[in-house]
């Protein structure tokens, strides 16, 4: 199963459109998938203590553990993934160990394309995740309303999804 985590809390999020495009592509190629939307399932702020006992945190941890690969979609906030994405990783920590992880960002401008690197480094160094060397970075021009309207970004969605599945299967054997 490939778990897609949509991190944005914005009601009209663009990174959620990317996350849904990944879910659609996974369905098209017949891969089991689940979408976990942080705007729908609220997680408590990580306090390093009692928050780990929250039912939604435990549910997300189980889904991460069960996943063969995980795709994270986030908006760029202050040259980083949004706080909700980082909070989710803080809360679920060791569940990420050894997972194949792909990343995608929606951004306001072209200049913030390295913004996923802090998260990527943490996943690699803390939890020995394997980061898929494919990446989606999309700005406002790639969307029309609640739709993805950019063929080159759709191609990247397809490639990221297919490469994530391929790597997850290869590393599982
Ligand atoms: C608080 C805040 C900080 C932001 N910081 C950046 C930034 O550093 N670089 C950038 O390109 N866009 C930045 N943006 C624009 C967002 O990345 C853009 O609106 C994106 O669509 C957000 O993702 P979402 O629609 O999935 O929530 C920022 C937006 C907000 C609200």
Automatic annotation (TrEMBL):
Source organism, top-level taxon: Bacteria
Enzyme class (EC, first level): oxidoreductase
Any coiled-coil regions, as ranges: none
EC identifiers of the protein: 1.7.-.-
Gene Ontology molecular-function annotations: FMN binding; oxidoreductase activity
Positions of the NADPH-dependent FMN reductase-like domain: 2-140
Keywords, in A-Z order: Oxidoreductase
GO cellular component: cytosol
Name of the featured protein: FMN-dependent NADPH-azoreductase
UniProt organism field: Rubripirellula tenax
């Amino acid at each position: 199963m490939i778990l897609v985590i949509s991190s944005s809390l914005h009601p009209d999020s663009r990174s959620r459109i990317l996350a849904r495009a990944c879910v659609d592509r996974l369905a098209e190629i017949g891969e089991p998938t689940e979408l976990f939307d942080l705007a729908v399932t609220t997680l408590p702020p990580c306090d390093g203590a009692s928050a780990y006992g929250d039912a939604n945190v435990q549910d997300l941890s189980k889904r991460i553990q069960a996943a063969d690969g995980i795709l994270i979609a986030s908006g760029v906030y202050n040259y980083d993934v949004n706080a909700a994405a980082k909070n989710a990783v803080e809360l679920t920590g060791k569940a990420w160990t050894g997972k194949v992880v792909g990343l995608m960002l929606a951004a306001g401008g072209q200049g913030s394309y390295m913004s996923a690197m802090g998260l990527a480094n943490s996943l690699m160094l803390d939890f020995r995740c394997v980061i898929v060397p494919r990446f989606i970075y999309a700005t406002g021009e790639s969307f029309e309303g609640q739709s993805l309207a950019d063929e080159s970004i759709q191609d990247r969605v397809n490639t990221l999804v297919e490469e994530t599945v391929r790597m997850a299967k290869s590393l599982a054997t």
